Amino acid sequence: MYFYKVQKPTLTVSSWNLTPDEEIKEIAKRYRSLLKTCRPFLDKANRKLIRRAFEIAVDAHKDMRRRSGEPYIFHPIEVARITAEEIGLGTTGVIAALLHDTVEDTGLTLGEIENEFGNVVARIIDGLTKISGLYNKSSDSTQQLENFRKMLLTLADDIRVILIKLADRLHNMRTLDNMPSDKQLKIAHETSYLFAPLAHRLGLYNIKSELEDLALKYIEPETFRSIVRKLQETKSKRDRYIRDFIEPLHKKLTEAGLQAEIKGRPKSISSILHKMKKQNIEFEEVYDLFAIRIILDSPPSLEKTDCWQVYALITDQYQPNPNRLRDWISTPKINGYESLHTTVMGPEGKWVEIQIRSRRMNAVAEKGLAAHWKYKDQDGDPALDAWISKVREMLESPQHNTMEFMDEFKLQLYSKEIFVFTPKGHLLKMSAGSTALDMAFEIHTELGLKCIGAKVHHKLVPLSYVLKNGDQVEILSSKIQEPGPDWLDFLTTAKAKNRVRQHLRDQRRKLAEKGQNKFLDKLQTMTTEVGEDMLHRIAFHLGLPSVSDLYYLSEINKINWSEVQQAVRRKYRKSNGDTLPAEASPERPNGDALVINHPSVWMDGSDREFRYSLAPCCNPIPGDEIVGIPQPGSEMLVHRQNCLNAALTHSTAHHRTIRTRWNKGARVAFLTGIQLRGVDDKGIISGISRVITEEMQLNMRSISVLSEDGIFEGQIMVYLEDTQVLQDLLRRLRKVKGVHKVDRIEKSTPNEA
Ligand code: MN
Question: What is the number of other CB atoms lying within 10 angstroms of the CB of residue 749?
Fold first, then answer.
């Protein structure tokens, strides 16, 4: 929550018309104001260092200008100011911020920076340069996600890299008006998708809200402006209400001898909009447009007692909503946030949210824990360290593809925390949605692997039980328990999932080792040729990724021996120079070649076979209405009747078209294209592939995904038998969470067929 500040209008090229002398004065002025914000840590030595960094930056950027026309140095100065004032970093952070663009954009080298300021500053700038390089070099969104992941890796090195990057982004967002509009949109989307959540997770609530609002300003400009306008229109009424609401509280607090500041603040534009969208209501119906914050001047030893005393005084005056009491003081959020929240019924029957906290808690809430503790007092913070090590775990787990990683990471960023207890009363923080099995893994990996269930409040629950806030959970385990593939469905943490995947792989490998002889013995009864070639041929024929899968399946008695036999025979014939007639073997789709079973298309009204191929423009499949177009001197080309190319050929070239129909009964797979659109929701890809490969048991040839600006677009090429299967598939895909639109690909522009 923060005040939406109407930014001073940014200078444009035409209005930037200071003389060189005036510019120098302006730079000096801005530098002095930076120093003012650094005052808390500005001893003589630090002042000298910052001065040096400033001089180097001025010199390095001396010939550069921002898009607005102003000297480039304004940007690093402003980033440094944000770093000190709004994030709360000290000297090292300010120096790194001043120099953050030098290595990338100017001739300055890391070595020079290291000589001047030492190894720590150099490493931070190295981190910032790498991130920046990553961002500029690619426009591909998948690549960007990968870059984001790399950026997070720097968290492990020095969290100040990320904090300064956030300051950099904030200033760029504040001055985004000067960018061309296509860039504005891209940067705004990236900000709302990646940087605002990151700020949230690091406890930088003010920066998070401002980033969200600024992003909204460019993504939904009309909505943004209308909410700003309505907030302004209702301001005086709201101010009066806040005054009336606060007055009795003020009195009570003073009587009780408590020193406190009470203020009412409007909520951020994006949080108001979020509420409007979520509850499908109008601006006028959003009741909590503002929140009251009470900040106590209590010494640390009394702050908790005082906060609860304030709670008691408030609820004497106003009726609280018992469901809205949140005690983040006894158990702070993972990012260090501490506060007591309640919602009470104010005058005119309006609900009012109240936050009660000490001045120290307020500093943490505004600047984030990272800055406040870790780099001012030099004390590590256990909660933050725990979070960073979790992120590191995720980043370092090799199994992750980037999409999965982002899904999981976003989940982590946004997830609410719940608290559960062990039988001995030990408190564990888990993400909302965690299961009993997750908790077992959280306690200990071995306990996770042997978990058979749990008791919650003395009642037996399954592994998949979703934990609730306040549950007291006893994990039950058994020595003979083995993880199964279904465990992946109800584990939520990356670490536990990876551990289970690894276990499953080990299990499979062991079974494959055991099954090898069994398979080879049997194969020898079919053929004398049991070399590598043959084994690969069989695996390929059965659609298995590797030979060891043959062994594994044979060990668990799930192998289809008649298909093995078929593969062996095909090989045999081929080696005799004999090609297998296509119709003898309804074969599996393989590689790029379309599998065509020639007699499966007959001409209408006759049972005469003809040679044909399927038009690649419309990919007809059985069940489609089709039409054959004879090609000069060769086979017939079969189109779908509604294919534009067919229509075009038909109307322009006077080709004879032949009505054709499918010969039912042949088991052949045809290649079909499907396109999907949706919001880039977590788990969307796994949802889609679950439907295709697991529910429908279909073979996918390719999937290509374009995810940009939160919109997900995918094209899938899949093999299926006929339109009935296709309809079934489309119906199921439409139900996948996040998917909005699913269609068969119909080429609308005629092309060469
Ligand atoms: Mn920058």
Answer: 7
